[in-house]
Amino acid sequence: MAGSDGPGETGKTGTGKAFPHSAENLELDRRLRQLDRKLAEQRKKQQTRERPARSSNASGYAAAVRLSSEFVAGIIVGAGIGWIIDRFAGTSPWGLIVFLLLGFCAGVLNILRSSGMMPERKLSGKPDDAKKDGQ
Predict the structure, then answer these.
(1) Are residues 39 and 65 in the same domain?
(2) What is the domain range of residue 40?
(3) Total number of domains in the chain
(4) Element at 18 (helix H, strand E)
(5) What is the 3-class SS of 31-99, one letter each residue?
(6) Which of the four, 13, 15, 31, 47, has the lowest number of CB atoms within 10 Å?
(7) Same domain as 82, residue 51
(8) pLDDT per residue of the chain (135 residues) written in tens, 0 to 9
(9) Domain membership flag for residue 86
(10) What pTM value is reported for the model?
């Protein structure tokens, strides 16, 4: 065999195929074993890091606080705008009622967008339907 050191000097790969023991193959085998060790260490580290994260509910509480604050902020801003309109236009209580309802709708819309249940609106000049039809 060309490239082998002798007739009986063959090894086996993980697939059971024989290959000659050359300097390149020995170096490749050494690098593969080194890579396997590093991957095993990384998997072990990753497993130990994931265990405490699963038991902690801090990220869930943070998401709940964020979503509730967005909802409350929408209502407060709507009520504030309605109160200001009523104050200057003298339309009390209609401006407050209308903008309170609009603030409620805006709060629900913000929650849906933040939770990923509704895609965020793009600020392009073309509607999404025209983009889909043109492609």
Answers:
(1) no
(2) 18-55
(3) 2
(4) strand 18-20
(5) HHHHHHHHHHHHHHHHHHHHHHHHHCCHHHHHHHHHHHHHHHHHHHHHHHHHHHHHHHHCCCCHHHHHH
(6) 15
(7) no
(8) 444 444 444 555 555 555 566 778 888 889 999 999 999 999 888 887 765 555 457 788 888 899 999 999 999 999 999 999 999 998 889 999 999 999 999 999 989 888 887 776 666 666 555 555 554
(9) yes
(10) 0.47
